[in-house]
Amino acid sequence: xxxxxxxxxxxxxxxxxxxxxxxxxxxxxxxxxxxxxxxxxxxxxxxxxxxxxxxxxxxxxxxxxxxxxxxxxxxxxxxxxxxxxxxxxxxxxxxxxxxxxxxxxxxxxxxxxxxxxxxxxxxxxxxxxxxxxxxxxxxxxxxxxxxxxxxxxxxxxxxxxxxxxxxxxxxxxxxxxxxxxxxxxxxxxxxxxxxxxxxxxxxxxxxxxxxxxxxxxxxxxxxxxxxxxxxxxxxxxxxxxxxxxxxxxxxxxxxxxxxxxxxxxxxxxxxxxxxxxxxxxxxxxxxxxxxxxxxxxxxxxxxxxxxxxxxxxxxxx
Length: 317
What we know:
The protein has ten helices and seven strands. It has helices at 23-45, 52-75, 78-81, 100-118, 122-140, 142-147, 178-200, 206-225, 238-260, 294-316; strands spanning 6-7, 13-16, 19-22, 161-163, 173-175, 232-233, 236-237. The strands form three sheets. A three-stranded mixed beta sheet has the order 1-4-5, with no helix packed on it. It has a two-stranded antiparallel ribbon with strand order 2-3. It has a two-stranded antiparallel ribbon with strand order 6-7.
């Protein structure tokens, strides 16, 4: 008897006249906004300027989307270039298919370009944005729910995902909601990075490396549950091997970075510390003086002397 399950949406797109509103795209867009919002708060806390994270994201996000799509198309080329397939579908990002490995790799290139243009160290920016990226992944995974894709093995657990679509070889039934597992794991990763960063004052890219390593741990076991077609190497899915390699590289970076550059950057954005808040208008809207200049002191002494002269004249009269 069916006790409980997670229903799938009847459709992943709603048409507003001729304009299609796709659930997958909305999840990606919301995730980007959350990542920039949280990254900006963390950047300000580290001494950076407001708006810097968004300015660099203008470079990082398009590169990330391109890298994510390229990784997916390359590793699942049969979906687009085999017999009976239309290669034009490789450009239909809204239908799903973004590889996080490619998104992070090429997104880092875009972030590097943005950081270089502003004279900002990329590791410091990566540390600030790391938890936000994890939350963006958590939100973005719900796009797979809208598309009824990337689910796991069959299960009778009360939180099973009910797949109703039969397109592209799907078999309707009840499966592990791997999109939900990964979404919850990414939320945990974001909280872990925020806690560790506060506790250990991570710097020079180590907070970002912690995000990468902890995500890989979760992705490894979640990948085992998935039943979608994938390339296998020595009996393991390609993404499992990718998770292992990236995990080892992230841990190695944390160890070497801690030895070479302990502590945290004192300055993350050149010139940001010069933007003192008391240089602008005060609470009443009047401009505050920059300091006790010689001219101000002379005026004060002259006014004091005049007041004394007036007092003496008044006594004589």
